[in-house]
Amino acid sequence: MQPFTIAIDGPAAAGKGTISKAVATHFDLAHLDTGLLYRAVGARMLTGEDPIAAAHALVAEDLGTPALRTAETAQAASKVAVIPEVRAALLDFQRAFARRSGGAVLDGRDIGTVICPQAEVKLFVTASAEVRAQRRFEELRDRGYDTEFATVLAEVKARDDRDMNRSDAPLRPAEDAVVVDTSDLTIAQAVAQTVDVIEAARQRRPR
After folding, report:
1. Percent of the chain at pLDDT exceeding 90
2. Tens digits of per-residue pLDDT, 83-94?
3. Pick the residue with more confidence: 168 or 199?
4. Residue 121 in contact with residue 6, Cβ under 8 Å?
5. What is the pLDDT of residue 1?
6. pLDDT at 114 over 90
């Protein structure tokens, strides 16, 4: 089967992970949350390891630990993601995954702009900072973390600033990406909208 790459980018807590998993299931495609790669590097950095060395030494087992979902690891991931040598170390793995036989869905922050600029479908999933902070706040509260909405909002905005203003592969929509704003959408509505975009692209593809 010919590769069919779906690149889904967007800021933290916009819903791109949930949408990506649903899309991968709907179209029976492999899925890679590229943010986990940076979270895994960030987690190793928090233990004192050099982030560049950690990126080169990353193994599949590093991607399945619960520690990757903590707020501390998320902030560490954002910090290591601005290091060009870390991004370069993880580039080949992501590109090889994207072009696997049958196709794949990748979500992250630079998939459509840097990792897979030739992807057949590019989407940019976003939402207001306040909506995203509320989602993250509720997620953390449900997990038993004691935090305040104002703190979470400040962290979301700080991460946005780092991601959008880093010199290497800043967060931004690809020029030909379809923007999906989930601020006022349910999960089902956001997934349906995304599936429609992908279906249209598949129909346009030469047989």
Report:
1. 80
2. 999 999 999 889
3. 199
4. yes
5. 61
6. yes
Using the structure block, give the residue that is written with the tokens 């973390």.
Answer: 145
- Where do the structural domains in the chain lie, given as residue ranges? 5-192
Q: In angstroms, rounded to a whole number, what is the distance separating the alpha carbons of residues 137 and 142?
A: 9
In angstroms, the Cα distances linking 201 to 98, 108, 131, 151 are: 17, 20, 29, 40
H or E element at residue 122? strand 121-126
Instruction: Please give the distance of CA 13 from its chain centroid, rounded to a whole number.
Output: 9
Q: Which two structure tokens, joined as six digits, stand for 1?
A: 């089967």
The predicted model scores a pTM of 0.86
Task: Report the alpha-carbon distance of residue 132 to residue 63 in Å, rounded.
Answer: 24
Residue 61 is classified by DSSP as G
The tokens of 191 are what?
């997934």
Q: What integer pLDDT is reported at residue 63 of this predicted model?
A: 86
Alpha carbons 158 and 188: distance in angstroms, whole number: 29
Tell me the one-letter amino acid at 192: A
Alpha carbon of residue 194 to chain centroid: 15
CATH class of 5-192: alpha beta
Residues 38, 159, 124, 26: is their CA dihedral positive or negative? positive
Phi, psi of 153 (to 5 degrees): -60, -45
